[in-house]
Amino acid sequence: MKRNSRLSAVLHALMHMAEREAPMTSDDLALCLDTNAVVVRRTMAGLRDAGIVQSGRGHGGGWHFAKPLADISLLDIYNALGEPIVFQIGPATEMPGCVVEQSVNRVIGDALKDAEAILMARFAGTTLADLAADFRVAAKHCRADTG
């Protein structure tokens, strides 16, 4: 079963942006993500529409943050991506009149709602600044291990 890695990829791109002092072009970001610049532009346009990033044209142009990293939550990013489906499992629909199927769907549905609420709360409480700080600590440990 294929997983939707779009949120992860966008966060990856945003962390590269956070590490740069200057704006990053779609081509720069595409290299970081091993994808096509058109895919980057399409995705970043949604983040721009949500007020997370801005873009500049011409020499020195590119994508940059519209506000501080501490003011952007993972939930903001998730919402800007159109709220992708979190879980691949879901209720059965083959026999909607069956009491057994209804019970199974109710139990599974309640568990999924609870799990999604926990995940969304975690996303809401985690900012890009938190993610950048975690990345910097991990990078420091990698350098220490190889040094």
Give the tags.
mainly alpha, WH-like_DNA-bd_sf, 6 helices, Tscrpt_reg_Rrf2, DNA-binding transcription factor activity, WH_DNA-bd_sf, Arc Repressor Mutant, subunit A, Transcriptional regulator
Order of helices and strands: HHHEEHHH
Largest sheet: 2 strands, antiparallel
Find the CATH topology: Arc Repressor Mutant, subunit A
Structural class: mainly alpha
Protein name: Transcriptional regulator
GO molecular function, one term: DNA-binding transcription factor activity
Organism: Shinella kummerowiae
Pfam families: Rrf2 (PF02082)
Structure description:
The protein is mainly alpha-helical and 147 residues long. The chain has one domain (6-146): Orthogonal Bundle (Arc Repressor Mutant, subunit A), CATH 1.10.10.10. Helix content is 59%, strand content 5%. The protein has 6 helices and 2 strands; from the N terminus they run αααββααα. It has helices spanning 6-19, 26-33, 37-49, 74-80, 99-124, 128-146; strands at 53-56, 62-65. The protein has a two-stranded antiparallel sheet with strand order 1-2. A hairpin with a 5-residue loop joins β1 and β2 (62-65). α1 (6-19) crosses α6. The longest helix has 26 residues, at 99-124. The protein is elongated. The N and C termini lie far apart (39 Å). The mean pLDDT is 89. This is Transcriptional regulator. It holds the Pfam family Rrf2.
